[in-house]
Amino acid sequence: MTGRWCRLTRWEFWPPWLFYPPVLFYVAGLMLRYRSPLLFTASNPAIPGGGFVAESKGDGETVWDRLARLYETHGLWVSTQKSIVRPGAEGADEIAAAMALLAERTPDAVGGLAVQGVADYRLGAEERPRYLAATPLVELSLGDAGRALIRPSGTEPKLKIYVDLVAARDQAVTAEEQEEALVGEADDVAAAIADQLGL
Asked: What are phi and psi of 83, to 5 degrees?
């Protein structure tokens, strides 16, 4: 009995179709107000494909075509993550030692990519904007190729390595093939960092 009462009195349990009639009346009112029966089709013309009837498709452009244009403009980006688990008190000491090693001895290169800069977010928080507070995070800048972020997990006995790489679009191969190769390169960078930290 209590369950039935909760389902009747709490909107979270109501069926989704119950919410559509008010929206339809609202849209109909807007159509009359602005004297345009197609008003609802222009959800946001600034967003490609953001309209009700997929304007980009009407222009002969698929989502893949749009993605290919973004690759041409901004390059092909990939991200990968490597988690290194070290349980127990000894594991926590190993992770702390690895982070300390990064502060003492920055690698010159990782996975064949030159390290061009280091930002240690454990230090200098007072000189950065407030949203970049002190945190156990080290960023290795790989120049135009991307970056690597190394930090301990806040909830588990893990060291996490994140690698973001970018490359200009290579027309000799498909985007999927290039992406797969770039992910492999990012995995190699993460593995190289783990090796240099002795983990």
From this structure: -110, 130
